[in-house]
Amino acid sequence: MLxxxxxxxxxxxxxxxxxxxxxxxxxxxxxxxxxxxFQPGPLFLxxxxxxxxxxxxxxxxxxxxxxxxxxxxxxxxxxxxxxxxYSLSIREWREIPNSGLRYPLRVNPSCGNLHPEEVYIMLxxxxxxxxxxxxxxxxxxxxxxxDLRLLIAKATGYPELANQTAIVVVTGIGCRQYWKxxxxxxxxxxxxxxxxxxxxxxxxxxxxFSVQCIANFPDQTIKELLGLNFLPxxxxxxxxxxxxxxxxxxxxxxxxxxxxxxxxxxxxxNLGAEGFKFEDIVKMNTESLLDIADLKPPLQNKPITQDYxxxxxxxxxxxxAWQRKSAQSFDTKKMLSQEEFNLIxxxxxxxxxxxxxxxxxxxxxxxxLEYYCFVHQVEGMGPGVYQLVxxxxxWILLQEGNFSQECAQLHLEQTLLSSSAVTFSMVGNFQxxxxxxxxxxxxxxxxxxxxxxxxxxxxxQALGLRSVAIGAFYDDELNQFLSLAIPQKQVIYSFTIGx
Length: 499
Prior knowledge:
By secondary structure, the chain is α+β, with helices and mostly antiparallel strands. It is 28% helix and 21% strand.
């Protein structure tokens, strides 16, 4: 019997026939609210123009890996302002011609610019309590006056969370994606959460803080600790900011320790989300939920035996993150150099500290993704389709020839992909992930793809390249073109790059 993760993935696939027969036009008058807020309640304004961290992108990438880092400044509202500005904030507003309407473009990417992510932060000391990041008003909304760090430590099994500088929880409001993309929107939700989590980790690392990402936790318990008991919003990632985590113990939180929902401050706004519930998504998400009794010790891979240092890129992280944009066109006359290609590939290997990769305590990550690449214009590499061999970090040629037109065709005839220099396809190892994590594995595959995609965006931006993540493609046609063993291995995300 197939795992439901594989069944759900099959249900959400696109084909040449399905995109023409199952035409769906979203009602823009029913779009869920793009911004969450809780009011009235205490507000703490963030600085609109905080000083940019001086850390280079290379050092920021290196800080993601180092056993211990040294913060460049104390953790205060200025620090929080820096973290949020260079990870999730609105970079600019654009007007829709002849409409009088405008829309925001944020620092971090999102499929369809729909941004399902919300962020909550738990702090101690002078700012003790739980806060919601109000993106639109650039402030922190206080939701709980008690220090919840000990409770989340007891709920997840990481005792050191009780004394961490900050704990960030990234949640998702799925209806923002489901409204437009229906069942496939669940994939985009998870990938967007990965991008947002990666953006937050990078921003904190640029300030010298150690960061780790936890994605296996008791979902309903964390939801209740955020005061979101009955809302259409789910937690997907917990980010520890401060010092490195070093140990795990079986969770010990008791239900009576969770503050009742009436003790949380502020009333939530209405998102208009009630009409966007899809049975298959509900089942997929329900099947992937964990309870405290389901938690197991995190994977612990062999330790990294040598100091890690990402190759030198002189640009500041803050400048790169602020300027990041998704490509809308490419210059077909320019080729990627071999050095540029190698730096992009190095980005795929940065050993992130993530629980489901076996590296939350600093070990060598075990990726659940494999990488294939359509090479069109790279110096020193003939055009063709390649596969990355993890053990040797070498690319092997699978098919020789210029497949730029086929690449575009396989990705819903998006001509952008025919003019790029390379397109990476991230292939999820469904069998291994689902065998190890059960139905949770489907969530984790897509989260990892989003995390890697965020790193790719910044590296390509720093190199003066353009790039864009692609979540829409003819699934089985692309899988078959790459000769994948379906359903054990399937493409879940693509990323195209050029000048």
